Every structure is written in structure tokens, then in C-alpha cells.
Amino acid sequence: MKMSTPFNRAPIVHFLMRVPRVTFVEGQRPGGSHSHAINTIDAHSEVIQASGHVAIAKFGAPNPRVERLQKQIQEQVPTYLILVFKRGGKFIGFKSLISAIRLGTPTAEIKNSAPSYYREFSYSAGLWFVVEGPLQICDLTKLQLASNKKPLLEVLSASRTPSMLVETVGYVPLRRSTHRSSSTK
Questions:
Q1: Per-position DSSP letters for 145-173, written without gaps between them
Q2: Is the CB of residue 134 less than 8 Å from the CB of residue 96?
Q3: CB-based contacts of 75, cutoff 8 Å, min separation 6
Q4: Fewest beta carbons less than 10 Å away: which of 40, 137, 172, 184?
Q5: Helix, coil or strand: residue 11
Q6: pLDDT-derived band of residue 184, with 50, 70 and 90 as boundaries?
């Protein structure tokens, strides 16, 4: 069994997910409105303020790369969920620590930890993240794709990929120096 050391540890990755800045929800509202807009970040932040955590769904096809994230969480490596949306031509990111990941149908506990508007979507997501603590602004300029090391903002601008694994820019595994200093007398 190979032990992980600072000299051979894989870079820490985080899960980035595009979200709409505003989510439009159908359904009866006070005053008779049938459709209403919800600020996605605010809706999740309100649940965090009330309970200290929130369940966040990734709708669409589940991402098979979550095993690496689950391993990091199990090893108590700080691993973030980063939510990104575009406003005025700029990408804005928010991050929070992931405490759990669930593939498949959400448990009753996850449903109770999600913003109430998720009921309108019948909790149909196949991938769920539970995050702890507030959603904090995330500096996206300091992130790169884990797969090819391209700057995140470049990738976000050129593609519509809904989710990706990212890491801190410039990650270089530490290596023991093989160079020996020589001294002359």
C-alpha cells in the first residue's frame, strides 16, 4: 500500500457547478402569480443561515467524477462546492465546504435541507451536495481545470460545460530536491 505524503499527494480538487443567477419556478404564489423568480444564491444562503447547512442539487446527468471528492471528504481534506453564474459579462463564484455527497434519490434529510423551491422540481436531481457554512465569494482567477490546467475563466468563457473539477492555479506537487549543494574551500 502506497502512503500519501506531501511529495506524492494528488492535487486537491473542488467541484464547480454552473447555476442560474435566477431560477424561475412555476406554481401558485400569494397574490395569484403562477411563475416567480428566485435568486439562487440567496435561496441557498437563507437555508444555511437557518440551519448551518444546505443541500444543493446538480440537475441533469450525475457527474461520475465525485469519487475523488468523496475520498477527499472522507480524509477530512477541505473540499469546496463552487457555484458559478454570469452577470453583466462576468463570472461570479461562491464556495462552501462540502460535508457530504449523495448520488441518486435524495433522503428525507436532504429534502428537508434543500431550499423549498426544489419541491417544484420534484427533487429530481441525481447528485446532491450538502455544504456547511456560508456561501462565500470565490476568486475564480485562482482556479484552473484539474484535467488540463487551463485557466478556469478561459474555460467558462469558451464552453457551456455544466460542471467540472477544478484546483488552485499553479499546483505543483512538492518533490524532494536531488540537488546537493557543494562547497569549496
A1: ETTT--BHHHHHHH---SEEEEEETT---
A2: yes
A3: none
A4: 184
A5: coil
A6: very low
Q: What is the pTM of this model?
A: 0.82
Domain ranges for the chain, please list them.
14-25+34-168
What DSSP string describes 80-91? EEEEEEEETTEE
More reliable by pLDDT, 134 or 31? 134
Q: Which of 12, 91, 105 is nearest to 55 (CA)?
A: 105
Residues 15, 98 contacting (CB under 8 angstroms): yes
What confidence tens digit (pLDDT) does each residue in 100-127 have?
999 988 999 999 999 988 887 777 888 9
Fold exhibited by the domain 14-25+34-168: ph1033 like fold (3.10.590)
Q: What does pLDDT average to over the chain? A: 84
